[in-house]
Structures are given as structure tokens and as C-alpha cells.
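Table S5 (text form). Sequence records supplied for joint modeling of the two-component complex.
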Amino acid sequence: MNASESKNKAVVLMSGGLDSATCLAIARDQGFDCYTLSFDYGQRHKSELHAAAKLALGMQASDHKIIRIDMSGIGGSALTDMDIAVPEVESDGVPITYVPARNTIFLSYALGWAEVLQASSIFIGVNALDYSGYPDCRPDFIEAFQKMAKLATKAGTEGQEIGIETPLIHLSKAEIIQQGMALGVDYSQTISCYQADLEGKACGRCDSCRLRIKGFFDAKVSDPTIYQQS
Amino acid sequence: MNASESKNKAVVLMSGGLDSATCLAIARDQGFDCYTLSFDYGQRHKSELHAAAKLALGMQASDHKIIRIDMSGIGGSALTDMDIAVPEVESDGVPITYVPARNTIFLSYALGWAEVLQASSIFIGVNALDYSGYPDCRPDFIEAFQKMAKLATKAGTEGQEIGIETPLIHLSKAEIIQQGMALGVDYSQTISCYQADLEGKACGRCDSCRLRIKGFFDAKVSDPTIYQQS
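The corresponding C-alpha cell record, covering 460 residues in total, follows.
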């Protein structure tokens, strides 16, 4: 038996952003054999997919899958509908960048893969503090998904429950960055921007950029992001 | 305002089989404006997709979407892995035709589309009586999904809960057929077989065929299915 066979397996959802990279570092640090999962869902910020693959490779994931899913057919979000602009000022309530049922769909896939891999855990870098107000990032949602997942799977009904791990859920963006720095995450490789260009340069103005900029500032860590104007 | 604008909308999951066709007929009969959703998930029985589209058209769905999703990459089932044979004898426990997290993934998509359409309901033809023992067909699972869905969506958090409707869940296959016949469902257009050929002819031996054959027999309805040997 080699080293990876003796470890518990985890599926780690990887957007290629700051949070998911930190989440992968935490899963690795906890001793998991990590299988990373990204989605090409018609998002306008495709460069995050390259970032995710590069990060997974650099952080020694055992496998990295990119699943192509058609969410543009469903519509209703600035991230998947090119006719809706990404807002550059803060909005009240759930913003137009919310993608209906996105985390539910992502976690459902992760659940299927985790069951096939006989993984014990799924890691997702959701955060309910410095976040955009999306309903599917909150602890209540994760808890309800966990209960549903137990009933949904053959594994769950046979007592091998797959745990949904959210190590960042109660951390501020600055705390996430500090934890990632301590684990050696190279944040220059991560892309958070909702409208990053093809080279991965960030706009510096969207909600996700604003949260990230403030995070580096509050963490007193030099921001390695390359912005489109710089 | 035309007739369809005054009706409540429902997303109806359509496999193209006997159950989903009956489910669509019931949703229509209850007065819903129906939006049907099928998945091309790498299943070996692709002819069911043609059946689904034809049934949706014939039963006047307002829109029919076929979403292509990659589940063969996840593997682990005789329905998506061509190296695993479809069993032709009854098995104990959850059979190898179980596709990990399939209904969770299907319902998650339906949830996303329902939210965009501002639909009040999702119809799914799961059945916990004459079924293959899949965990994601049971009432407990549906109830847990419903709770999760409320927390997952913007609609749910704003008090517009999307209901998961399972009109067939406690019916026998014979009762489903009787109900469908009363609503005018043309079962000759439906395909249930896990290994139907390209023309839609059924094998008559897989689990799904066996349940269907018994259903027509018990319902005392002439079986309109075309079998490969006939």
C-alpha cells in the first residue's frame, strides 16, 4: 500500500480563487488525499479554470477534473449571461452575480464523485462573513445539504456518510489569507475576479475583487494580484 | 395576458420513461404550465432522450431542455460505464445500475431552472414501491431535498419556496399506468429499458423492463412496448 492509499480521500471544489486554494491547502494539511473538481459552467471568467488546474497540480492533487456543465441555458445571472453586466458597486440583497442553485449543483456532482472514490469528505470554500450574500454559502444551507446527502447516496444509507467540510465558513477574508499564507498558498496563482481577462488580470472593481483587496489590506499582506490597469 | 401566463409554472423532469410521462400528464391535469427537462448524461439508453422530446412536444410543454452533463467521468454505474454490464437478474441491495447522486444532480438543475422561470413546483416521477431500490427515490430523500432547496435559493429565502412534487411516490406501477391511461398518456411513446436499442426497442430483461412488464400485466392493460425479439 502506498502513502496515498492509506489516507482518507477528499473531493475539493476548486474555483481557482483565493478561498478554494486555501481550502485545498487546509485539506492537504489535515492529511487528506485530495481530488479537485472544477466546473466549466459558461462563466465569463474562464481564466479561473486555468488557475484551478495549475493550483491543483502545484498542490499535488491526486486527480483534477473539469466538468463541463451547461448553466447558460438556465440563465438569470451576470456570471453566465453575457447580456447582464457585472455590477461594480455594492448592491442590497442577493446580487445579480448569484447563479441559481450553483453550489447545490456543484456539491451534487462532488457527492457523486466522492461516492465513487469512496471519499470520506467534500471540502468547499464557502464563507458567510466576507461574502456576496449568496444564500448557498450559509451554514444553514450546508447543514441541510449534508442531511440530504446522507439520504441521497448508497454510501450514506450504508452508514458511510460523506462529510461536507467548510473550514472557511466563519473566517474573515483576512483570516483566510493569513491561514493560507501559513500553509504556503501562492495567492499570485489564484483568480477571484468575476470579469478577469484571458491573461487572468483582475478588474479591481467587482464585488469579488473588492472583498479580496480589502482582505489583503486587513491581513497586512502585500496583494499579489495583477490588475488590468496596472 | 395569455392563458399560459396566468398559470403556475412547473419544471417536470422527463426521462422519457413511463413514470415521467405519467408525471407530466398529472402536472398538466393539475393546471400547470409545464417546462420539461431531460439530461444527456452519457447513458447507454440514449433513445429515451428522443422519447422525452417527443412526449414533451405531444403533451404541449412550453419548453423542453436537454442538458448535457458529464457523469461518465464520475463512473461507478452500469448505466454510464460501458464496461459494466446491465444485470438481467434481480440483485440484493442497491443494484449496479444506481448512478451516484443522479437524482440529486437532476433536481439541482431543475431547481436552478425553476428559480429563473419563477416556477412554483418541480415534478419528479420517483416511485418507492415498484422501483429498483435506489436511495434517491425514497420519500425521506425528497423531503430532505425540499428543505435544502428552500435554503439554497434566493427564491426560497424570499419566501417563494419551490415545491418538489412526487405524485407517483406511493403508487404501484399498475396504478401509475391506470392513472396515465385515464389522462391519455400514449405509453407506446415511452422508453423504460436500460439498454434499449437505437430504434427504442426494449430488451425485456433488465430491472426496468421487468417492473414495466409486470405493471402492464397487473394493470390489465395491453403492453404497447416493442421488444427486441418481437
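Note: The domain at 3-219 of chain B is CATH 3.40.50.620 (Rossmann fold).
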